[in-house]
Hints:
Layout: E1 7-10, H1 12-15, E2 34-36, E3 45-53, E4 58-62, E5 88-93, E6 101-115, E7 121-128, E8 140-143, E9 148-155, E10 168-172, H2 173-186, E11 192-193, E12 196-198, H3 201-211, E13 218-223, H4 228-231, E14 239-240, E15 246-247, E16 251-255, E17 258-259, H5 263-272, E18 279-284, E19 292-297, E20 300-301, H6 306-319, E21 329-330
Amino acid sequence: MWDDSGHVVTNYHVIAGRPSGRRGSAIGPPNKKVMVKLPGHEEAVEASVVGHEADKDLAVLKIDPATLAAPLVPVQVASSAELKVGQSVLAIGAPFGLDWTLTSGIVSALGRDIDGAGGRPIKDCIQTDAAINPGNSGGPLLDSQGRLVGVNTMIYAPAGLGGNVGIGFAVPSDTVSRIVTQLITHGSHARPSLGVSVLPDQLRRHYARLLRRELEGAIIAEVVPGGPADALALTPWIGKDTHGGVTLGDMITGFNGAPVKSNEDLMCMVEEAKPDEPISLTLMRGCDPDRVEQVLITPVRRQTLMATLDEMDAADSRRGPPMPQPKGMWWGR
């Protein structure tokens, strides 16, 4: 329970349906009906989905406090940045359907990167040996004072066993606080976006080998019409031309002075940016080391790009199956 207004935090994969087939979709949209079981209430109550962020495996639900006999008690939140390896933690959940189960352990490691429900790594996750099993997903990881330090999201399951082997992971509370605040305030697709997709790192490294030179950065694959990148005339990767050559797009190599060496570097930096506040990008125009320049770009919320992206998806479907050339990862999603 996040606040006394009835907001509830859980994992996105807990409420997600089947994949919708949309470009870049690794998991389906949220189920239309979600039921929440509360302590002290015999019957589950219906909740609406306020917003979700698949890349962080987080979702926010809303129940009506007026329909409940007792007042809601929100969780206290601690900063995950203050955690230490060896610190005691508690996990609460319903492993294998056993409601209100509490397990204990320690923080085994910090700074782990795990794959989220959206297919991208969740940075700086907490590793714990507190027993976490199917049914713990979306439950809280607490410190010894009962304060939230993470949201349990995944276990390590060698050979697909699906049971606890002493290695579980939680989304850190600092990430949870930031994403949940965005979802409550602005709904889904509220994260900042530059309005571009980027060429997969594997393809970028492939071209680097062909050209026999380094290509460290994020190469622009597509530009969303009307987005921030389009306004600055950023050039996307074109692919093979009529002569069999490849025309590379602009490559982003720096973000507010910090180096960008891969797509994940850039995507994580964009996530931390604030919409409507300008940032500085270092660009290598056409991947040409002699054409490096700095540009100011103002990210927008992905919500403003969704209509254009839907139109591009519809155009793709009318054209039939895509050509066998890798697409980038959409930030407009």
